[in-house]
Amino acid sequence: MRIAVLHGPNLNLLGQREPEVYGRETLAGIDARLYALAGELGVQLETFQANGEGALIDRIHESAGRVQGFLINAGAYTHTSVALLDALVGVGRPFVEVHLSNIHGREEFRRRSLLAPRAAGIVMGFGADSYLLGLRGLALRLRASARAAAPSEEV
Ligand code: CA2
């Protein structure tokens, strides 16, 4: 089982700015924790960060053939990008949406996620742990789907 982790705009700044909102952990630190957990779960992982919407969409298209699902923090595109939603839905792989902060406890414009209605699940408000919880949830979901599709095989 292989999962792609996608980090959206400005998340490369993690740990350097706004620690009171987003914590002190760097993106590299989060990725390292995700790789460690993926090892425990027996999942293969790839991670990617981009500030541009097009780069994220290209990555979704390009990686969809080799991964079974996506774990995505789309950053501010969560609230604005129909194109990103279309890409995720278009490739036909389940995705889990994650956020460091609780977007419902912040400004009005952050409370709506365009991705949420099509997400397999959403985890928010636990800082970097949101990613780890989201990865566990996605791996469980993918494993259950694989078992349902091929009950006698080891998945
Ligand atoms: O809480 C989250 O994970 C967000 O997806 C983070 C986005 C924000 O636009 C969403 O509403 C909620 C922002 C990511 C920007 O990250 C920064 C990190 C450090 C310094 C500046 C920005």
List keywords for this structure.
17% strand; binds ligand CA2; 39% helix; single chain; 155 residues; alpha/beta
Could you explain the architecture of this structure?
This protein is an alpha/beta fold and 155 residues long. Helix content is 39%, strand content 17%. It contains five helices and five strands; from the N terminus they run βααβαβαββα. Strands 2-1-3-4-5 form a five-stranded parallel beta sheet, with helices on both faces. β3 (69-73), α4 and β4 (95-99) form a beta-alpha-beta unit. α2 (27-41) packs parallel to α5 (129-149) and α3 packs parallel to α4 (82-90). It starts with a strand and ends in a 6-residue tail after the last helix. The mean pLDDT is 96. The structure holds ligand CA2.
Would you summarize the structure shown here?
The protein is built from five helices and five strands. By secondary structure, it is an alpha/beta fold.
Count of alpha and pi helical runs: 5
Low-confidence stretches: none
Shape: globular
Strand segment tally:
5
Strand content: 15-25%
Distance between the termini: 8 Å
Could you spell the SSE succession in H and E letters? EHHEHEHEEH
| Main beta-sheet annotation | 5 strands, parallel
Q: Ligands in the structure? A: ligand CA2
Provide the spatial order of strands within the biggest beta sheet: 2-1-3-4-5
Helix content: 25-40%
Global Rg: 15 Å
Output mean pLDDT.
96
Structural class: alpha/beta
